[in-house]
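thought: user wants a sequence for this fold. calling inverse folding tool.
action: design(structure=
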């Protein structure tokens, strides 16, 4: 498993380098929503997708599982959709329709759904009549929020790595799911030096949709009664989930058309304020690791009260340091 991860990282790096030399699938021209100022190749996510799929093919026993088979097929569909989007955009309605139908198939045929809601000791079983539509909404929303949040150097990579780490080392995790998460992380690491701190290529929709598919599905593969809970699925992507969800709610309240490009995300405003991608990506990385740590602590033998106290302490420390940094930047300007 470790050897495959190492080879996956090397393959991803080599494939990304080749894409950089080729100029990507297309050139990303800065627009009103962009956080960059110069045209940059996009489509680097193809390297992540192909590297991970090659790793998955090295262990054919995974495909004996109906759930994993449909998960892989869904990720391939999203990779293909992303490649199409990187070359020329589809309408929002067409894009959403493909995502929804794909998610419905993977939930029904792949038997992948959310069995419980809640976190820790506060969990409730949900009936299948509610579980199926809720699971489809979850997958489609994670696909799109991951795409929305992929707007500055390295931010999508750090969230993908946090998910990979959290899923791979979660107490009691199955070997197959840990392996998939590990290989996903390795593929991202191979791509990361080309995207952060200076972006020589963007992952594009091919990367954000492919990773979004696995980030949505891996928690569903992990969920078992008494183990990985619905709340853990949100915790593992909490920074992206909160930023995208709160921004969407605000735009709906203001009556804005949510399908149009905008710069209303918290990470975009922070980038404008600080004038740099790097501190914002590091800030989101710190938050990602906080929530992953909390999730693992919840599943360990530690009392939940200690986990909550750790969350509050870390929240206070990061918030204090962040406010200090912002004030220094403002004084410097």
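)
observation: tool returned 333 residues.
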């Amino acid at each position: 498993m470790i050897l495959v991860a190492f080879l996956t990282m090397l393959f991803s790096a080599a494939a990304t380098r080749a894409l950089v030399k080729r100029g990507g699938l297309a050139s990303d021209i800065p627009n009103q929503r962009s956080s960059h100022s110069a045209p940059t190749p996009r489509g680097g996510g193809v390297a992540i997708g192909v590297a991970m799929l090659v790793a998955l093919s090295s262990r054919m026993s995974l495909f004996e599982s109906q759930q994993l088979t449909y998960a892989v097929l869904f990720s391939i569909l999203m990779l293909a959709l992303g490649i199409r989007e990187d070359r020329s955009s589809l309408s929002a309605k067409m894009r959403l329709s493909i995502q929804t139908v794909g998610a419905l198939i993977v939930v029904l045929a792949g038997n992948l759904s959310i069995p419980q809601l809640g976190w820790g000791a506060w969990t409730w079983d949900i009936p299948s009549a509610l579980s199926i539509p809720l699971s489809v909404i979850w997958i489609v929303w994670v696909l799109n929020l991951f795409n929305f949040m992929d707007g500055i150097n390295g931010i999508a990579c750090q969230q993908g790595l946090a998910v990979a780490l959290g899923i791979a080392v979660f107490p009691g995790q199955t070997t197959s799911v840990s392996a998939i998460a590990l290989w996903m992380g390795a593929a991202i690491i191979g791509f990361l030096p080309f995207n952060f701190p200076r972006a020589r290529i963007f992952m594009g929709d091919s990367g954000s949709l492919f990773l979004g598919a696995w980030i949505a599905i891996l928690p569903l593969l992990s969920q078992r009664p008494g183990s990985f809970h619905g709340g853990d699925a949100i915790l593992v992507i909490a920074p992206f989930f909160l930023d995208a969800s709160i921004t969407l709610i605000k735009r709906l309240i203001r009556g804005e058309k949510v399908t149009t490009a905008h710069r209303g995300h918290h990470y975009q405003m922070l980038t404008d304020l600080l004038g740099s991608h790097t501190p914002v990506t590091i800030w989101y990385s710190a938050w990602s690791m906080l929530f992953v740590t909390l999730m693992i602590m919840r599943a360990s033998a530690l009392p939940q009260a200690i986990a909550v106290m750790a969350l509050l302490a870390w929240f206070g420390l990061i918030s204090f340091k962040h406010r200090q940094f912002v004030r220094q930047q403002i004084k410097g300007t």
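thought: summarizing for user.
answer: Here is the designed sequence. Residues 2-332 form one domain.
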